[in-house]
Amino acid sequence: MMQGIAAAAAVPRGMLIADAWAQLGDAVAPLSNASGRPLARTVKLLLDPLVLRPTQNPRFAGGLIGVEHVDELRRALQDAGPALAATAAWFQLVKRARRRAGVTEGHPQDLYFQRCFELAHLHGHPRDQPGAEAIAAETVTDVHAERGELTVDRLRRFMTDPARAVELARLLRTAWEDRAPEPREPAPAPGLTEFLDGCVTKPDERLWQTLADNRIGTAAAAELDRPGVARDFGLTERDRPTPPALGDRASKRQLPRPFDRSIMERLFAAFTAVFQRESMADIPSMVVGEIHRSAAAWQLAGEPGRVAMALGREASAVLDGSSPGNAAPAVPASDAHARLQRRWQRESYVHRALRLPDPEAAGIPEDLREEVRTVRRAYLRRLWARLHGRELRSENTAADEVWDLLDGVLRSVVMDQRDRLRRALEREGGQA
User: Fold this and answer.
1) How many domains is the chain built from?
2) Residues 312 and 412 in one domain
3) Which of 98, 187, 296, 362 could form a disulfide with 219 if both were Cys (CB 3.0 to 4.6 A apart)?
């Protein structure tokens, strides 16, 4: 197979990883599927974030790997071979400890893969560690004790512990320093309009996968570091995104713009919404994951979410200036554009209220009037929050879910505006 790989100008990433993985042999079988390839969770939880690190090594990031980087990627996996073999052995021990403890909650791979990788680096291979069984049992106890106390108070205690806060601050600084350099010009984003044109009635799964493999969402985020762009999208109050604070408190009523939130505030939603406990990581993993997510494209961890943000940015361009009576509404470029535009133009309640002779006297606050005039900002903020929440719950985004997501976000924004407007008018005794 490697002869064919060497002859190509670029190699599919999945095929290259599978070939290099096969060279590691039976020692990594617990991390492999029936065909000997790495499990999807092995790639997601171990290889990408801990071995290949595509955010710091963009040459390993795309769906296709340049032939000049093939040997380097193979060496990265080979060099990690001993640690991965030890991880696999620890995983076997931890699963046995889990069964003895009678634990059935949560998916073992989600819960223990990264912990076992940590054990491999702390203790080496379990066969060389006399107390390996006890360490495995302690790991299971620790993980589930943490998950049994997933509270805001415990999150705050974890993040404000003085010794730990120093290490988290170092990790945050390193994550932002290691960000991939910004391209001189934003990369073109082929395929977004084509996908939007069919996503309502016949979502193209192959095109969706191509968009993710080609990292179109990541490329579309390049412009966010330019002055004013992320602010114009409503994602920050600042001229450009900056590293977040760790934070020590959060309030649901006073959450800043998404990119301005501290790590504490970003995770706060996980404890104030209805989440499936088994879908959430333990608190240390959540915090470390959020730190790395904050430095990633769109400040999201996965390419499917980033592609969805790029699609939302594209589709929502028709919203601003599309209020009824606008002299020159934007021309929709796809079926999804047109449907979002029609939904917004049909929102007569809000638009009628804003056409009152004196909306300020009627009690309609200026921030709500501004939000209606620039609804795209509210839309993109809500879309980011939805995608961020999905990542916290380990929910992937598939092609056939995209339209429900894009349409649902606008529907949610409209309903919020209606409720705010109704309350304002009732307080002032006005009528829309």
Assistant:
1) 2
2) yes
3) 187
Q: Say what percent of the chain tops pLDDT 90.
A: 53
Distances (CA, A) of 178 to 148, 207, 245, 424: 34, 30, 17, 47
* φ, ψ of residue 66 in degrees (nearest 5): -60, 140
Residue 261 burial (10 A CB sphere; 0-12, 13-18, 19+): buried
Residue 296: which residues within 8 A CB-CB, separation 6 or more?
Answer: 55
Angle between helices 375-392 and 366-373 (to 10 degrees): 90
Q: For the whole prediction, is pTM greater than 0.70?
A: no
Tokens, residue 221: 């985020």
Phi, psi of 365 (to 5 degrees): -65, 150
Domain termination site, one of 106, 129, 148: 148
Read off the tokens for 57. Answer: 């090594």
Q: Are residues 184 and 88 in the same domain?
A: no
CA nearest neighbour of 95 among 136, 141, 127:
136
**In Å, how far are 35, 270, 370, 392 from 281, measured between CA atoms?**
28, 10, 38, 8
Q: Are residues 189 and 91 in the same domain?
A: no
Predicted confidence (pLDDT) per residue in 37-46, tens digit: 999 899 989 9
60 within domain boundaries: yes
Question: Do 190 and 324 fall within a single domain?
Answer: yes
Contact between 380 and 221 under an 8 Å Cβ cutoff? The reply is no
On whether both 354 and 394 belong to a single domain, the answer is yes
Does residue 218 form part of some domain? yes
Q: How far apart are CA 308 and CA 397, in angstroms?
A: 8
For residue 233, give the nearest of 267, 258, 196 by alpha carbon: 258
Q: Is 84 part of any domain?
A: yes
Same domain, 237 and 359: yes
Helix-helix angle 303-315:205-213, to 10 degrees: 110
Residues of the chain with pLDDT below 70 are 1-9, 145-151, 180-189, 270-281, 321-329, 349-354, 356-359, 361-363, 426-432
87 with 190, same domain? no
Residues in the chain: 432
CA R_g for the chain: 24
**CA distances (Å), origin 136, targets 98, 371, 405:** 9, 52, 40
Residues 204 and 302 in one domain: yes
pLDDT of residue 141: 82
Question: Which structural domain range is residue 303 located in?
Answer: 179-243+295-428
